[in-house]
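User: Structure please.
Assistant: Input sequence and predicted structure:
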Amino acid sequence: MIYIDKVNKSFGNDLVLQSMSCHIERYTPTVILGPSGAGKSTLLRCINGLVSVDSGQVAVDNVTLSRDPKKLREFRKSIGMIFQQFNLIKRISVLENVLCGRLAYTSLFQSLLTKFTNADYELACQYLDKVGLYEKRFQKAGQLSGGQQQRVGIARALVQRPKVLLADEPVASLDPKTALVILDLLTKISEEEKISLVLTLHSVELAMQYSKKIIGLTQGKIIAQYDTNKTSADEICSVYDHEEVVNL
C-alpha cells in the first residue's frame, strides 16, 4: 500500500531521515512512534509530498511520488492529512473550512473564487454530520473547542475521499478524555470508509490501543517494527532508548 524505499531527507546540515525503508499494509492501522525530533512528522510529510525527499522513493498504491506539480496535485488527492494544530482558518465558518478539502478537485479559477458545487456542499455536510458538527456548520471555526476543531480537520480530510489518512500527533493538543474520543472517531471512520490510517503518536499505551502495527523511530532511523498483537508495552517502550534494529 505505502512503500518507502531508502528515503533520505536533510534540512541544511541536519539529517532527519536516514536510509529509511518500510511498507505499510492496506487497512492496517499503523502508528509511527518515537521521541520528539525522531523524524515522525517529516516522514508523514514525505508520504504525501508536503516535503520532497533528497533520495529514495515513496509510493502509494504503486504510484510513485512525483516532483511534477500536476502529478503531485493528483497524487495528493488520495491522501488526507490531519494536523496537530488543526490548521484551520479560524475567521471563516466550519463549513467553509471543510470545503477547503475539495480544492484539489476544482479548477484554478474556481479555487481563486472559492466556488464549490452543490455536490461539494452536500459532501461537506455529510462529513460534518459524521463527526457530530453539522449543527455548528455556520459557526466560525475559531469559536470551537480544541476537540471540535480537530473534528473539523477530520471532516476536511475526509471530503477529499482519500485512500490514506495521515494524522500527525492528532491528539497532542487535547486533554486525555477528548484525545480518546478523537482516536475512537478516527479508527471508526477509517474502518467504515475503508481508509488506511497512519498516525504519529508519543504514547505507547495509545499506540498499542489504536494500531495493529507500530514503526519505531529514533534519530531518523527505523529501529523497530512491531505487531501489536505479538508484543508488550515494555518492548515497545524500548523505542525511546533502543539503538539496534528489531523486528518482532
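The longest helix spans residues 176-193.
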